[in-house]
Amino acid sequence: MSVRLFAHMALTLLLLFAATAARADDEKVVNVYNWSDYVAKDTLEKFTRETGIKVRYDTYGDNEILDAKLMTGQSGYDVVFPSATPFFAQQIKAGIYRPLDRSKIPNAKGVDGDVMTSLTRADPGNLYGLPYMMSATGLGYNVDAINRRMPNAPVDSWRMLFDPAVVSRFKSCGVTLLDTPTEVVPAMLTFMGRDPLEQTPAALDTAMHALAPLRANYRYLNSDKYRSDLASGDTCLAHGYIGDLVQVRARARESKAANKPNIAIVIPKEGAMVNIDVMAIPADAPHPDAAHAFINFLLRPDIIADITNAVGYANAVNASLQYISPEIKNDPVIYPPADIKARLFSALPPAPPGFDRQRTRAWTKFRTDRQ
Ligand code: N2P
Question: Long-range contacts made by residues 340-343, C-beta under 8 angstroms, separation at least 24?
Answer without folding.
Answer: 340/267, 343/267, 343/269, 343/270, 343/271, 343/272
